[in-house]
Amino acid sequence: MERRVNNGRLRPQKPSERERLTQLLLYERQLKKSGINQIAGVDEAGRGPLAGPVVAAACVIRNEHWFEGIDDSKQLTFKKRAYLFSKLTQSSDVDYGIGVVDPETIDRINILEATFLAMQAGLGQLKVKPDFVLIDGGSVKGIDFPFQCIVKGDSKCYSIAAASILAKHYRDEIMLKWHHAYPHYHFDKNKGYGTKEHRHALEVFGPSPIHRRSFVPKKLGVHL
Fold first, then answer.
1. Residue ranges covered by each domain of the chain
2. Could you report the per-residue pLDDT of 133-178, keeping only the tens digit for each?
3. What is the mean pLDDT of residues 199-213?
4. Quick check: 71 and 155 in contact, CB under 8 A?
5. Sign (positive or negative) of CA dihedral 58, 64, 67, 73
6. Which DSSP string corresponds to 150-194?
7. Residue 3 pLDDT class (50, 70, 90 cuts)
8. 1 pLDDT exceeds 50?
9. For the domain 15-182, what is the CATH code?
């Protein structure tokens, strides 16, 4: 869609919210054409931080319930994610599950395996087993349902975008609680990611009980 500007050139016009959401629903609608109705989107949050858990969410949105503003969680403010988290979790048209894997387990089995474990846990919490699962990323294992991986799926697929919001906000809330226990690391700001301020705190105070021991030495060289 284009519109004229003063110099006579054509400038692309930003799509309406309805057009944007319609585009996000293409994967789900294609599956429904083939008779698949219970479709879950899955995404994770927290693969890269130095501290805290990895969290994955599974989300089924029935009846094409439209939630205005649904998007890749990284494109949304904390306030907008909190608003959409509340809308999603309170809707009777949404079935969701959230899996959390703690830092100790991440250190023991590695972050990739921990991510898969969190996804399995999130799917296991759904009230109704999905017929098909759409997953953000390039590969996955241990999923006991037919599935499709979509690279950057959180920006391309409605149910994955919704799952990204659930996972991201849930994890952020966990890190806000840990901030009160370990204020030196400023988890309220960095959510466990390796910011300059966070790395400096590690140099001064060493790792906390929720730091990933297998991550900190590689990224910083702190003695454990």
1. 15-182
2. 999 999 899 999 999 999 999 999 999 999 999 999 999 999 999 9
3. 94
4. yes
5. positive
6. ETTGGGT-HHHHHHHHHHHHHHHHHHHHHHHH-GGG-HHHHTT--
7. very low
8. no
9. 3.30.420.10
Q: Are 68 and 47 in contact (CB under 8 A)?
A: no
Token digits of residue 2:
């284009």
Enter the tokens of residue 209: 């009980």
Euclidean distance between CA atoms 164 and 178, whole angstroms: 21
Residues 69, 73, 77, 80, Cα dihedral to 10°: 40
Q: Is 14 helix (H, G, I), strand (E, B) or coil?
A: coil
Q: Which of 166, 142, 172, 145 is nearest to 154 (CA)?
A: 166
How many other C-beta atoms lie within 10 A of the C-beta of residue 102?
A: 14
- Cα gap 180→199, rounded to integer Å: 18
Q: What is the pLDDT of residues 12-68, one digit of tens each?
A: 556 788 899 999 999 999 999 999 999 999 999 999 999 999 999 999 999 989 999
- As given in the structure block, the two tokens for residue 151 are 């690279």
The pair of structure tokens assigned to 132 is 């098909």
Report the alpha-carbon distance of residue 158 to residue 71 in Å, rounded. 7
The single-letter DSSP state of residue 57 is: E
